[in-house]
Design brief:
This protein has a single domain, classed as Up-down Bundle (Growth Hormone, Chain: A), CATH 1.20.1250.20. It is 82% helix and 0% strand. It starts with a helix and ends in an 8-residue tail after the last helix. It has 16 helices and no strands. It has 401 residues and is an all-alpha fold.
């Protein structure tokens, strides 16, 4: 096999293993929302407490993404990914053994630390493995998240609320099975290895995100990530509860929720392919416009089939908007600060993911309807679309080596 053929095979293997790791992460990401009715029933949590239970793993994701991205530029993408998978696997299992409200919050926070570190490194690894088809590679990897979430939703459709621990057993065992496989077969990023032969970095890697003309791009990325993740996590984590409040039973609610994941898979793969074939700014405009329309529609429809269709559309286009941001972030930074840059952007998004469900819990507890809560995320999506387009029209945006 030629050197170029070997390189392409290695890049395809790296992307495939990253998809597997993302699938393991996706199983846990939706677990909290699927288990929420059963957790609330067993522990007697009020809606604000349920919001905190859901959001504490997202808060952990915030710190995990920032720390994991920073460590990736120091010790390597593969090493941090393996530790991240192990951490969220162990603490996902531990969620099933929480004994009260404080222990539940602490365990979910620690689970989130691992989840956040994993995603930042998956994006960096896949981007560096396949720079010639970067959009498709990141899209395939990100597809693993909704695919894992679909598995969780299907589990939720066949269990009753008192059996909520099942989703955390699955969510914990899968990454722990994946870790030894990746440790043996996943190659380290060649771009990272090559960067180790260069002169060592001086100064703060985080500070470098705001130097040499990168400050505006970094700030705009953080704004875009914040509002898109706010909308996504609002739907993912509160949709099961909102659907049950509309009168759908557990099976119907889980089935509708699975449409979000199915749409997400189509959106990530489809828009990933579009990113490699058409102007990125044009693809971004389409994705954000349709995401806004989908979220607006979801806030106003009722009935099983209209809601299922709206959830499907929200999954397709909200996650497509997130994919565009995820695939754009690595293009804005050189390899020596790429992990830090992507991790910081993902952390900004997780902060939005924390704020959204937490605020929703308090709003719903105050008597505000679920449709109003969903609609409140629409202006933020509009702002995220504008900031993303500003980044893409800036002349410095391009793959940085």
């Amino acid at each position: 096999m030629s050197a170029s053929g070997t390189s392409r095979t290695q890049s395809m293997l790296t992307v495939a293993f990253c998809v597997l790791a993302a699938l393991a992460e996706g199983i846990d990401l939706q677990s909290a929302g699927i288990a929420a009715p059963g957790v609330a029933m067993e522990f007697g949590f009020a809606k604000p407490q349920v919001g905190n239970y859901v959001s504490f793993s997202i808060l952990g994701l915030l710190f995990g993404a920032a720390i994991g991205g920073w460590l990736a530029d120091r010790v390597g993408r593969k090493t941090v990914l393996l530790w991240s998978l192990a951490i969220f696997g162990v603490f996902s299992l531990a969620t099933a053994w929480a004994w009260d409200y404080p222990s539940m919050l602490a365990i979910r926070f620690l689970t989130g630390l691992g989840l956040g570190g994993a995603m930042a490194n998956l994006v960096a690894l896949s981007s560096e493995a396949a720079p010639d088809y970067q959009g498709t590679a990141v899209g395939l990897v990100y597809m693993g998240l909704p695919l894992g979430s679909t598995i969780t939703a299907l589990i939720g459709a066949v269990i009753t609320p008192p059996e909520w621990r099942t989703v955390f057993y699955v969510g914990g065992l899968v990454p722990l099975i994946v870790v030894p496989l990746l440790a043996f077969a996943l190659p380290e990023s060649a771009a990272f290895q090559n960067s180790r032969t260069r002169a060592p970095e001086t100064g703060s890697r985080l500070g470098a995100l705001f130097q040499e003309g990168r400050a505006a791009t970094t700030a705009l990325l953080w704004i875009g990530f914040f509002f898109v993740q706010l909308a996504i996590y609002l739907v993912i984590n509160w949709m099961p509860t909102l659907l049950r409040d509309q009168g759908f039973d557990q099976s119907q609610a889980s089935t509708i929720q699975s449409f979000f994941s199915i749409g997400s898979m189509l959106g990530t793969v489809g828009f990933g392919l579009l990113l490699d074939r058409f102007a990125r700014r044009n693809v971004a405009m389409v994705a954000f416009l349709l995401a806004i329309v989908a979220q607006f529609t979801l806030a106003h429809v009722t009935g099983f089939y209209p809601v299922a269709l709206a959830v499907f559309a929200a999954g397709t286009f909200l996650v497509a908007a997130q994919l565009i941001l995820l695939s754009t972030a690595p293009l804005c930074y050189g390899v020596t600060i790429r992990g830090t840059g992507v991790g910081a952007a993902v952390a900004a998004g997780r902060f939005g993911g924390y704020i959204g469900p937490t605020a929703a819990g308090y709003l719903l507890a105050s008597g505000i309807g679920g449709n109003i809560v969903l609609f409140a995320s629409v202006p933020g999506l509009l702002l995220a679309g504008i900031t993303t387009l500003v980044i893409l029209f800036r002349p410095r945006t391009g793959y940085q080596t």
